[in-house]
Amino acid sequence: QLQASGGGLVQAGDSLRLSCAASGRTFSRYTMGWFRQGPGKEREFVAGISWYDGSTYYSDSVKGRSTISRDNAKDSANLQMNDVKPEDTAVYYCAADWSLRIGVTPNADNYDYWGQGTQVTVSS
Fold first, then answer.
1. Contacts 24+ apart (CB under 8 A), 16-20
2. Residue 114 in contact with residue 22, Cβ under 8 Å?
3. Does residue 5 contact residue 17 with C-beta atoms inside 8 Å?
4. Confidence class of residue 98 from pLDDT cuts 50, 70 and 90?
5. How far apart are the C-alpha atoms of 102 and 53, rounded to whole Å?
6. Of 17, 20, 62, 97, which one has the fewest beta carbons inside 10 Å?
7. pLDDT tens for residues 37-58?
């Protein structure tokens, strides 16, 4: 089970930290991903972090202003977003890939578990 939190209403240029708490299985073996779905848009990959070596992968839309991290001792994964933009407005979902894949996949179909989503709204 995954629980996303940390969303809210922020202004453009602000920073935001999203958290995902996991329970039920060995978190250290999940590759964790963050996805988002904006109004009228399809769900898209934002960032991911590998269970294997902690390597990270970002979409071009957030690269350079976002950092994904994980704390295996706390069964949590976080997404720090800086300099947020109105186009970052979306429902953000955390997801877990249980396949023991080496590396991060941006394909949502490869993620086995999903959180309920947290709304992020960025005002200009």
1. 16/80, 16/81, 16/84, 16/120, 17/78, 17/79, 17/80, 17/81, 18/78, 18/79, 18/81, 18/92, 18/94, 18/118, 18/120, 19/76, 19/77, 19/78, 20/76, 20/77, 20/78, 20/79, 20/94, 20/115
2. no
3. no
4. very high
5. 8
6. 17
7. 999 999 999 999 999 999 999 9
pLDDT digits (tens, 9 = 90+) for 3-30: 999 999 999 999 999 999 998 778 999 9
Q: Which two tokens stand for residue 120?
A: 């992020």
Among all chains, which residue has been given the structure tokens 């902690």? 54
Please check whether residue 97 is in contact with residue 124, taking contact to mean a CB–CB distance below 8 angstroms. no
